Amino acid sequence: MSSKIQELLKQKEAIEKAIIEEKERRRFEGVEKIKAILEEYDLEINDIFPNRVSKSKGSDSSINKVAPKYRNPENGNTWTGRGKEPTWIAGKDRTLFLI
């Protein structure tokens, strides 16, 4: 590869790194501004987004629990029909496993 191309690739890499750093700096700056406004007006994040659960509280109550639809007759394991198929049902007629 020519030295000109190598130099341009180094410049490109430096520019991409600078872009990432600037985005991170601006994001941090934005978060700090929002925190200051929340504190200034004595607000909680739920005051602004009432239908959301704060991640910091660690609450999993907003996750919808789904009842199992399928049961493995050999050991009683169940599957809701969501996500990756368990090996015991993969490629088989699911109606045989309905609860």
TrEMBL record:
Family matches, as PANTHER family: DNA-BINDING PROTEIN STPA (PTHR38097:SF2), PTHR38097
Family: Belongs to the histone-like protein H-NS family.
Any one Gene Ontology molecular-function term assigned to this protein's record: DNA binding
Keyword set, alphabetical order: Cytoplasm, DNA-binding
Region Disordered, residue ranges: 54-86
Gene Ontology annotations for the cellular component aspect, listed alphabetically: nucleoid
Name of the featured protein: DNA-binding protein H-NS
Gene3D superfamilies documented for this protein: 4.10.430.30
Compartments it resides in: Cytoplasm, Nucleoid
Pfam families: Histone_HNS (PF00816)
Boundaries of every DNA-binding protein H-NS-like C-terminal domain copy: 60-99
Record carries keyword Zinc-finger: no
UniProt superkingdom: Bacteria
